[in-house]
Specification:
heterodimer; A: about 850 residues; alpha+beta; six-stranded antiparallel beta sheet; B: about 130 residues; OB fold (Dihydrolipoamide Acetyltransferase, E2P); five-stranded mixed barrel; about 20% helix; elongated
């Protein structure tokens, strides 16, 4: 029997699907029209115009689908599975963006959106290269748009394949939810609530990090398209100038996106650090490295021969690696190896085709002879069909491997024929040679990282059992490469193109070398953090790079800020390396357990004392501090553990600061801890609750009712702020809910006022609003305290002073519950982490200065 | 032979060497049986928890020691000593990967990865109020 469901709003779904269909077909139309326009040499603008119309229609489709999905999420239309899975009624509306791109479909739409934006800018600015570039962009969009198609292709007995995963599927039709019994109820929408976002993703970084990262990904498509158009038009270096600003903007944005991920991990996740060499982190770092290498090679004025080949290789590789990263994180192949990969939505094959297509395209284009090109095209089609039919047989794997090898060899030979060969003799001591060599060093770094990250793929292909690499192994290899790279960063700017005199070169860099050596040496004497022999070399080279680039700005660019972009960017990058080495290499667990060393230590190698147990009220010494656990407070579903840090001054303990590490309780998705960090200029103290006894939590909740603190008296004017121990509170003013004009002065005088307060947490997120009621009835004033449930505080208005336009009030905060009699915690000191953040900011500012400088010089 | 070619060849050789080195030195997934055969090597053992046997975590005595029983993919059970705190929600994990080596009768782990069933794929088992 068919059930008639009530209250479903089916229109957005229909609209959404129309938009998706429009985006796919219009992208296809744009790709074909732009392609035809490249073949037309007569100057007829017809095809080009059609291509433009196609791409604009495509943009309408993408934006329309995005708006529709936002509408569904924002209004909690749980009849749609995407809304059900990623939002819930209680989810604060500020997480609507996070909910939008938490799922694969939404993040594909986000990526698609940035491609549309870059495509539209290219359309307006690329002039005679427009048709070539836009063919590539539109082709990429055909692929990405189909990722959200959700169409099923069926040829009985042969093919049964679902293309893409559609975000507009109804909850009762979606394979993962259709079995829910509640969906048999015709009025299910009245009672259904969504699942919401995983609590560890309910964070403002989740709003910022993905769009930044995807914009960075989108920007890598532009250099790819330019490089392809270079081969296509057999004009191999003309496009460099136009592509440079795009490539460097990509470095800045993708870099910012990656660093935001690191900041997120450091601030709010429990990695205990900034970077963990997780496969997903690596897979976005790798295209950044190739982009950095490729973009710097674009700067070489007479780029030819092997260098030119490397330039093309790196630029193509960048976008291919972006696709590979997408493949790794979304196909489910990483599975157990990473904490933040998506689950498999059955798109592995589709993602693979996307990846292979954009590897194959440059190979096809570089083939010079027409007959050879068509031959290769035919061969590829045969390979594709063979793969689709016999993809399980081991023979096909070998065949594919041979095909890949032949293709690469062919590409190399053809490129050698096509590219202008180097005419003049090469000088090792020249800027172009140093850029070439540093590009190769970055390439080694990339090969190592990709190899490590691809272990799950290798396991799948050849049945090995390699486990993900450990942090130490990564640090070792990448540390050595970082030494070489920072050396290149330090010296390359002091070299001219072509020939250089070695003595002049030495005299230019000598000063920085000496100063850097003195600084490293004295830092090693003063701070023990710099004394680790493993890292001292990298400290020196990174410091040298900072100084040499600063020197370059002051001595050779006459402090001209416009031209200082590159040097500033290099200073930033070197500071990032320095900060990572100092803070990561010398992070110190101060929560060492000194009192209870287990003598029966079973395995001395793995012994660790990183976690320490603190009883309620206990005070334990840790490094320069004394730590005390002062109870917990459950506010909403967040348990706040109060840890006081004391310092010993003149033999007395004085409180230095208080931290509230948290545990976000969530029955359905697992509890997620959130560390708390105290920031100082030269170090951070990171505090993280690793274990609490959560058994019988509900019973304990009853017993351990937190109490309000002694009221704290304050006077406040409109828009002023007072500080609680966890929050800051802004007085928004008085609201009257009685109309004064209606009242006459007699005994029945009644005035009702609400004092409204907004409560913000330390990050500036508004988390609560408190309304304290103040009433005047005749000659008496009555006050009813306002309670902020989420913030756990109570405000009581004592008096209103019309003369000074202020109010007197009392604030009490919930504190000192005893949900847990003890906590197990970690405290880590990160020295010099601010070097890293300063570096991040300088690098991005530096790159943007140089990008803007290049754009304004061109026009 | 140009200098850039020489550098290129050196780099390719270096990269291949590095790749082999990283594979050679890579830790591998294994079963308890294999780990017993090479007690000096570090392995990653994938398995399921035995919830019927005791899990011992006594932070009063040692906050950095936790023990439990794990059944590997071959069905062999072994006691695991983890030198860390007990992971939160440990009992709920669907799959556990322990990193360490076999010493005597027990597997000694320096690290653990748990996979919870909750994150994305359990829509069918969700209760809805």
């Amino acid at each position: 029997m068919k059930i008639q469901f009530n209250g479903e709003n089916l229109l957005p779904g229909i609209l959404g699907n129309i938009f998706i269909a429009l985006s796919i077909s219009a992208a296809l139309m744009a790709a074909i029209s732009y392609f035809m326009s490249t073949r037309n040499k007569t100057g007829d603008k017809g095809w080009k115009r059609l291509g433009r119309i196609g791409f604009i229609l495509h943009a309408v489709g993408v934006v329309g689908a995005i708006i529709t999905l936002f509408y569904i999420i924002l209004n909690h239309h749980f009849e749609y599975q995407y809304a059900w899975q990623h939002t819930s009624r209680e989810l604060p509306s500020k997480y609507v963006f996070a909910a939008f791109w938490e799922g694969q479909e939404g993040s594909f739409l986000l990526w698609s959106f940035w491609h549309v934006v870059t495509g539209l800018i290219l359309m307006g600015t690329a002039r005679k290269q427009e048709s070539y570039l836009m063919t590539v962009v539109a082709l990429a969009q055909v692929f990405i748009s189909t990722m959200v198609a959700g169409a099923i292709i069926q040829i009985p007995g042969l093919i049964d394949y679902k293309i893409g995963s559609n975000p507009f599927i109804l909850t009762r039709l979606h394979p993962s939810t259709s079995a829910m019994p509640i969906l048999q109820n015709p009025d299910y929408l009245q009672i259904l609530d969504g699942r919401g976002i995983n609590p560890s993703l309910q964070n403002y970084w989740m709003t910022l990090h993905p769009p930044m990262l995807f914009l960075g990904f989108a920007l890598t498509l532009v250099p790819y398209a330019y490089a392809l158009s270079g081969i296509w038009r057999k004009n191999y270096t003309e496009w460099f100038k136009s592509a440079i600003p795009w490539a460097f903007a990509g470095i800045a944005i993708l870099g910012a996106g990656i660093l935001m991920g690191g900041a997120w991990a450091y601030e709010a996740l429990n990695f205990g650090g900034f970077w963990a060499w997780d496969p997903v982190e690596n897979s976005s770092l790798v295209p950044w490295l190739t982009l950095v290498a490729g973009a710097h090679l674009l700067l070489i004025r007479k780029n030819n021969g092997t260098t030119l080949f490397l330039t093309y290789f790196l630029i193509f590789l960048t976008f291919v690696l972006v696709l590979y990263s997408t493949f790794l994180t979304r196909s489910g192949v990483l599975g157990d190896a990473s904490v933040h990969s998506f689950t498999d939505l059955g798109m592995t094959g589709q993602l693979l085709i996307y990846l292979l297509f954009f590897i194959w395209l440059p190979i096809l284009m570089i083939i010079q002879k027409k007959s050879l090109r068509y031959g290769y095209l035919m061969l590829s089609v045969i390979m594709l069909i063979a793969g689709a039919l016999f993809h399980v047989s081991p023979l096909i794997k070998i065949l594919y491997l041979v095909f890949a090898g032949v293709s690469l060899a062919l590409a190399y030979l053809q490129a050698k024929q096509a590219f202008p060969s180097s005419t003049s003799s090469e000088h090792v001591l020249s800027r172009e040679f140093f850029l070439f060599a540093s590009g190769l060093v970055l390439l080694i770094s990339v090969i190592h990282l990709s190899f490590e990250t691809s272990k799950p793929v290798i396991n799948k292909l050849i049945g090995t059992q390699y486990a993900p690499g450990n942090v130490e192994a990564y640090n070792q290899v990448q540390g050595i490469l970082a030494v070489i790279i920072t050396l290149f960063i330090a010296v390359t700017q002091f070299l001219q193109y072509r020939e250089n005199n070695l003595d002049v070169f030495w005299s230019k860099i000598m000063r920085s070398i000496i100063v850097a050596a003195i600084l490293t040496f004295s830092a090693g004497i003063i701070f023990q953090e710099f004394r680790n022999p493993k890292y001292i070399l990298l400290c020196f080279t990174a410091g040298f790079a900072v100084l040499a680039n600063a020197d370059f700005i002051f001595r050779y660019q006459r402090k001209n800020l416009k031209k200082a972009g590159a040097s500033l960017g290099h200073i930033g990058f070197s500071l990032i390396i320095l900060g990572a080495v100092v803070s990561g290499g010398h992070k110190k667990f101060i929560s060492q357990n000194t009192s209870q060393i287990n003598l029966e230590a079973l395995n001395a190698d793995f012994r660790n004392n990183e976690n320490i147990m603190l009883h309620y009220g206990d005070t334990l010494p840790m490094l320069n501090y004394f730590l005390s656990y002062q109870g917990d407070t459950l506010i909403g579903n967040v348990a706040n553990y109060r840890v006081d840090y004391f310092e010993s001054k003149n033999g007395k303990l004085e409180k230095a600061f208080t931290l509230y590490p948290k545990l976000i309780l969530n029955d359905r998705m697992g509890n997620s801890p959130e560390p708390a960090t105290k920031h100082f200029l030269f170090k951070d103290i990171f505090t993280h609750v690793t274990y609490v006894d959560l058994e019988n939590l509900n019973r304990k909740k009853q017993q351990a009712i937190p109490t309000y603190s002694e009221p704290q008296h304050f006077s406040i004017q409109d828009k002023d702020t007072i500080f609680g121990s966890r929050f800051f509170i802004v007085f928004d003013g008085l609201q009257s809910f009685t109309d004064l004009n209606d009242q006459s002065y007699n005994d029945s005088l009644y005035i009702g006022l609400n004092a409204v307060f907004s409560v913000f947490d330390a990050r500036g997120n508004k988390i609560d609003e408190v309304k304290a009621l103040y009433e005047i009835k005749g000659n008496y004033a009555f006050s009813t305290p306002g309670i902020g449930e989420k913030a756990g505080l109570k405000i009581d208005v004592e008096r209103i002073n019309p003369a000074s336009r202020s109010i007197d009030a009392n604030l009490s905060e919930l504190q000192g519950g005893r949900l847990s009699n003890f906590i197990i915690m970690q405290a880590i000191v990160f020295p010099g982490i601010n070097l890293l953040w300063t570096g991040c900011i300088l690098m991005i500012i530096g790159i943007f200065i140089s990008v803007i400088n290049r754009i304004s010089n061109r026009s | 032979m140009k200098k850039s070619h020489i550098v290129l060849i050196l780099v390719i050789a270096g990269a291949i060497g590095l790749a082999f080195y990283s594979l050679q030195s890579s830790e591998t997934y294994a079963s308890f049986r294999e780990a017993s055969a090479h007690p000096d090597k570090i392995f990653h053992v994938v398995g399921k928890l035995n919830l019927e046997k005791e899990m011992v975590y006594n932070p009063l005595e040692d906050a950095n020691l936790f023990s439990f029983y794990l059944i590997d993919k071959e069905g062999k059970e072994n006691r695991v000593w983890l030198y860390k705190t007990k992971p939160q929600d440990f009992e709920k994990s669907e799959q556990v990967v322990v990193v360490g080596s076999m010493k005597g009768d027990g597997f000694h782990a320096k690290d653990v990865l748990t996979k919870c069933p909750s994150k994305y794929s359990d829509a069918q088992t969700q209760e809805v109020q």
